[in-house]
Design a protein that fits this description.
The protein contains one helix and three strands; from the N terminus they run E-E-E-H. By secondary structure, it is an alpha+beta fold. It starts with 11 loop residues before the first strand and ends in an 18-residue tail after the last helix.
Length: 80
């Protein structure tokens, strides 16, 4: 018997970090954000904990997960 695991995480989002780098990710309802490659597959190596990706996605999530008509995340960056 062969098993197939299907996990639905939701739509792909795009976010631009404070350095101008664009990230593609999905927000899994259990595991949280997962950085993706351009083809939509999860990156083999996720961003390090020091990456601006995490800070920006955290701000976006805390501010209501708003997106514009092009599916870019809308957020205000909080300076540390």
């Amino acid at each position: 018997m062969k098993l197939i695991h299907v996990s639905y995480a939701g739509p792909f989002h795009k976010i631009i970090d404070v350095n101008g780098k664009e990230w593609l990710f999905e927000m899994h309802n259990y595991f949280g954000p997962i950085a993706l490659r351009k083809d939509g597959e999860p990156r083999a190596v996720q961003p390090s904990f020091k990456s601006q990706f995490w800070e920006c996605v955290t701000c976006w999530a805390q501010q209501g997960e708003n997106v514009d008509e092009n599916n870019y995340c809308k957020y205000t960056h909080h300076k540390a």
